[in-house]
Amino acid sequence: MGFSDKIRVLAVDLSSGDVTSQELASDVSKKFIGGRGAGTYLLGTLLKKDVDALSPDNPLIFATGPLTGTAAPTGGRYMVLCKSPLTGLVACSNSGGQFGAELRRTGVDIICVTGRAEKPVYLVINDKGVELKDATGLWGKDTHFTTDAIRKELGSDTIKVACIGPGGENLVRFACIINDKHRAAGRSGVGAVMGAKNLKAVAVKGSEKPEAHHHERFMETVKERVKTLQEHPVTGQGLPALGTKVLDNIINEHGAYPTRNFQTGVFESTDEVCGEALVEKGYLKKNRGCYACPIKCARVTQLPTGAKGEGPEYESGWALGAAVGVKDLISITEANYLCNLFGLDTISCGLTIACAMELFQKGLIKKKELEGGPALSFGSSEALVFYTKQTAFKEGFGARLAEGSLRLASSYGAEQYSMSVKGQELPAYDPRGVQGQGLSYATSNRGGCHVRAYLIAPEVLGIPEKLDPQATEGKAQWVKAFQDLTAVIDSMGMCLFTSFALGAEDYLAILNAFTGFNYSLEELMECGERIWNLERVLNIRFGMKPDTDTLPQRLLKEPMPEGAQKGNTVRLGEMLPEYYKSRGWDENGVPTKELLQRLDIDNI
């Protein structure tokens, strides 16, 4: 049997224990593709009004794409969607590993979890059916223990598990969901929503293989694109050799490596914490790839202490390193391991600690508030590891950190020290050195984020062409195009890293061969535009104001103090009106009725 355009949804009501199977309307897969798109559509139909993110009324959606679990290069991605407890906006977090592919093999495309269980449970989906099992004995356990215990209980080492750690259980607003022990649906607090539902884990094992509409055409198309990825200098050489931390020295030399809570864009100790150092110090043991991945950018590491795990990746290593001024690679890696064990988003964790360090530096946080904990000083390895643990368990000052940097800083009347957009902490690129990336941050539908439109590719790396990073003209159109294409890639079930080597026509060829939909390029990009606009509509429904399309004042008003970008600020005012115009929105950033009608999302 070939590809079916029916998106199969497993609806799980934890309050009643009822489990039902449904199918989304047949045109949803054509209009929204799957994954992020179909998940956003489902979220919109379920949340017609604003609800508290940690209430039972907030659905938690695990969504695969049509290429998840197939031979498509990197075709193992899945998304987790809900309303975010960190931002109050749409949370849509992407993860790789093996879990998504295994979920697809169960015959389920989307899991939609509603309600709240009376006691901790975990969900099992396999060829025998669907079952909710008692997880009381797993509550309080870390993600590694939980994964191993569930596999032992179910009698199989090949079962794939996505679970929360203490971070999600304790409702840390930036808690994540960890699958396969090391992969994370990392951002926006999806783990806290899972914890609020008393859902400890989802375990999946299936045997149904997704089949293409045109099998031979699909496999030939895949073979050609895998070759392209293997021959590209980024996906075939840079990422396999050094992982994402290949970027450390590149971004630092560009002068956009945010240091000590974005006080500067140059870290003096990058050589001690970069990807090359991870290799030279002997901490890197081998590479590992997610499902069907020819790139294999994951790093399996082990410290001299004996501790071992994966990472740190570029973003994690930066957030737990330069962002807090720490130059000790052992402590950075240890904090990264702890985030994986306890289920914390490394970016928001690091940036919230960095925010606290600046508040401490400015005298706003007093030593007595730390309840005997180490001083929150930039560069303190001890403070980094100590407060990472405290945050996960909401112990001592960790209870304040668990709220995220914006709520923390606002409680001291110093919101300006939260390096966040729409309440979500910014990633590892100072936009004073990359104007288009600044616009991407400001307009991101999920707050501070680099994977909604990665303008670092053209502005720094010259992919697909080199743009002047300090130019503002034309950046609005670039950001829109990247945002729309990224929405397509996320919805297909492929990894964004493939876009270093592949273009829109490549994704079009792969998707058409698998689904048989025969999209035109314009129709495919319109899918991305539709998804982006629906996310915007939902955010407005959830109370987002247009004036949140901005950046921290430091980045708009304080010139970069040193390095290659010295003297620069983000000239957002030159780009934002043009962006709204290119989107077809009104001057306040609201999609027009005519646009929503054209995209056929005016009634969602």
Structure keywords:
Aldehyde Ferredoxin Oxidoreductase Protein, subunit A, domain 3; alpha+beta; six-stranded mixed sheet; 3 domains; Aldehyde Ferredoxin Oxidoreductase Protein, subunit A, domain 2; Aldehyde Ferredoxin Oxidoreductase,  A, domain 1; 604 residues
Q: What does the model show?
A:
The protein is α+β, with helices and mostly antiparallel strands. The chain folds into three domains: 8-204, Aldehyde Ferredoxin Oxidoreductase,  A, domain 1 (4-Layer Sandwich), CATH 3.60.9; 243-424, Orthogonal Bundle (Aldehyde Ferredoxin Oxidoreductase Protein, subunit A, domain 2), CATH 1.10.569.10; 434-500 and 520-598, Aldehyde Ferredoxin Oxidoreductase Protein, subunit A, domain 3. 39% of the residues lie in helices and 13% in strands. The protein contains 25 helices and 17 strands. The strands form four sheets. A six-stranded mixed beta sheet has the order 2-1-6-3-4-5, sandwiched between helices. A six-stranded mixed beta sheet has the order 8-7-12-9-10-11. The protein has a three-stranded antiparallel beta sheet with strand order 13-14-15. The longest helix has 21 residues, at 521-541. The radius of gyration is 22 Å and the shape is globular. The model has no long low-confidence stretch (mean pLDDT 97).
